[in-house]
Design a protein that fits this description.
3 domains; elongated; 27% helix; alpha/beta; 10 helices; 5-stranded mixed beta sheet
Amino acid sequence: METCRSLRSPRGYPRWCRGTCFWEDSRRLYLPVPARPGGNDLTGTLLHHGCPGDGGVHDGSMVEDERHSPRMLGGERGVGSVGIGGDSTMNVAHRHAVRSALPILAMGALALTAGCTSRRPTLPEPAGAHGEVTVFVPCGMLGPMMKIRKAFEAQPGNPKVKLPNDNAVVLMRRIRRGEASDILLTPGETEMNLMVAEGFIDREDASVFGTFRMILVVPKENKAGIKSVADLADKRVRRVAIADPAQNSVGYYAQESMKSLKLWDAVEPKLVTHWHALEAVTYVCKGRVDAGLYFDACPFESTPSELSGYENAYKVIEILPESSHPVVKVQAGILKKASNPDGARQLISFMLTAEGQKILQKNGIPNPREIPVSGD
């Protein structure tokens, strides 16, 4: 079999499990089977739902860059795969190869069972606060949440925490497709309101745990000569970038700030929007717009690596007046289909303690004054 690095799959990322290289999609493992002669892609056979004892590939990393290759909600990209008993896209030779391997696998399983009858069976992880908690983490929160995880897991009896990281809109799409998570973090009210309205989260299971600030950013050259947010109304400013307000909290707060400052009528015709907040940021870095309105945390402070190659391509002009927009309510919501709701509540409760709030404050997610913190 080819080495793991040489495999290229349209569905996921290769990984090792029990000494064999597989590739993974939504925690399902597929045995690579070469496509038709001359092809480079792989199709596969669904084997099982995970390797016991390994941590998967979703811990604190972007699973897929959907900015440039979004999946359609109705299906997957690339060639198909087959499940046991499912329809196959493989040719006849491939099916015979898979079927001929099944008796050998069955004999191996019987041999392992015969050799282990004297051992005590391994019990599944008990339900409740033990086991694992999966938290979908958007841009601007991964660094702080990694610190939270370290402190939380250090306490006896607490569950382990996994932190898949991506754009908030992408994370919501993954939830709509049925990908499992216990908690969704949102950088404001827009995303959480959508998840509540669509029935994925109950309003009472959403907790506010911090806030962000809004900033005005321009390209390094600043050809429009912008010195303050008021200059966005000037005729020399031709284009202003924000994230789509209908899908992104950062775009919503930018819009509300412009309205409050009496700049909306002048700025609205100049707006350039994008559904992916980070792409809206790169518009400034590439000089495609004269200015942009974003959160200070993402990506400028917490995840500057997202702007690799653009580190010196922008500069921050000012922080927008906090009075010009509603308080940015950074939230954590427990999914209705959470596999570990007790562990999820335990983690959120820790985030709201004095210890958790100090960790968040130190790492870029301060707490607005009107939000009470337990333990103070």
